[in-house]
Structures are given as C-alpha cells and as structure tokens.
C-alpha cells in the first residue's frame, strides 16, 4: 500500500473495527452476533461507496481528475473488497420477505448469496482486482476505463445480491 496518511489511517481504523466485531466471540456460539457482522459489512460497504463517490466526482464532466488522489481511493476500494465477502458468514443469512428491518443491523442481502457463495466471493475478488488495476493506472484514460468497469461490476453485483424491498 502506498503511503497515503489520511486514507490509510481511516482504512486501518475501519478494518480494525470490522475485524474486532467479526472476531469478538459471543457467549453462546463463539461467533459474533449476526447483527454486529451485518452492521460491520454495512460500514465497509459505506466506505467503499464513499471512495467510489470521490472518484466519480473527479471523473464527472465538471470534475478535475487528480490521478494520485483517485488512485488512493481505488486502492482503498480494492482492499475493502478483498475483506468484504468474509463478512457474510452463514449466520447472517437472515432475509425475511416483508419483515420490518432496522437499516443498520438487518440484512438486505439476497439469500442466494449463500447458496452460491463461491460466485459471490469471485465477484468481490474480480472487483478488487479491477480497483487494484485502477490504483496502478499510468494514464488518466486507463484509470477511467478501469473505474467504468468497476462501476459495472458493482452495479451488476448489487442487482443480483441486494434486496431493495
């Protein structure tokens, strides 16, 4: 990871918090409570989304691409996407049609994730690699192409795996 002090410290803090929640044993099952893990993955997805928004703001017609700054955001996205599928243990498969949900601690993940977890894992891994490639792009046009592909991957994954009801 390149030395980007501000983003690096935020990323480290998020990952430490996420891993702390995910690793904290509950008294009953030696596993973190499912709601804590769901909350953690929402925090991680929020950080991915924030970094993607920063990049897309720079790439907008009225934006100004600062390639090094944009690459930093892409590297953070790559790292978080590597960790993301690990926040979907089977106990967090709690979707119930029509249930009233707490947006912070209840899942909006499609139960199909767990019936074909290897595909979900592969999608996250491929998106992480695209973000990594963007973080290493030598030219703005190369960066733009990688981010366009990343956005398509994100949207495709959300279309299949995110319940919106």
From TrEMBL:
<keyword id="KW-0732">Signal</keyword>
<dbReference type="GO" id="GO:0022900">
    <property type="term" value="P:electron transport chain"/>
</dbReference>
<feature type="signal peptide">
    <location>
        <begin position="1"/>
        <end position="28"/>
    </location>
</feature>
<dbReference type="Pfam" id="PF01322">
    <property type="entry name" value="Cytochrom_C_2"/>
</dbReference>
<dbReference type="GO" id="GO:0020037">
    <property type="term" value="F:heme binding"/>
</dbReference>
<dbReference type="GO" id="GO:0009055">
    <property type="term" value="F:electron transfer activity"/>
</dbReference>
<dbReference type="GO" id="GO:0005506">
    <property type="term" value="F:iron ion binding"/>
</dbReference>
<protein>
    <submittedName>
        <fullName>Cytochrome c556</fullName>
    </submittedName>
</protein>
<dbReference type="InterPro" id="IPR010980">
    <property type="entry name" value="Cyt_c/b562"/>
</dbReference>
<dbReference type="InterPro" id="IPR002321">
    <property type="entry name" value="Cyt_c_II"/>
</dbReference>
């Amino acid at each position: 990871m390149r030395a980007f002090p501000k983003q690096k410290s935020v990323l480290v803090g998020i990952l430490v918090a996420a891993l702390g929640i995910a690793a904290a044993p509950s008294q009953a099952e030696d596993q973190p409570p499912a709601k804590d893990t769901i909350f953690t993955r929402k925090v991680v997805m929020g950080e991915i989304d924030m970094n993607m928004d920063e990049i897309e703001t720079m790439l907008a017609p009225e934006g100004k691409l600062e390639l090094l700054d944009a690459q930093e955001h892409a590297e953070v996205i790559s790292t978080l996407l590597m960790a993301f599928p690990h926040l979907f243990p089977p106990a967090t498969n709690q979707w119930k049609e029509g249930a009233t949900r707490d947006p912070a601690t209840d899942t909006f993940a499609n139960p199909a994730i767990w019936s074909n977890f290897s595909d979900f894992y592969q999608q996250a891994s491929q998106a992480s690699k695209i973000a990594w490639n963007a973080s290493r792009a030598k030219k703005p046009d190369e960066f733009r192409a990688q981010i366009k592909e990343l956005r398509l991957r994100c949207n495709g994954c959300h279309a299949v795996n995110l319940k919106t009801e």
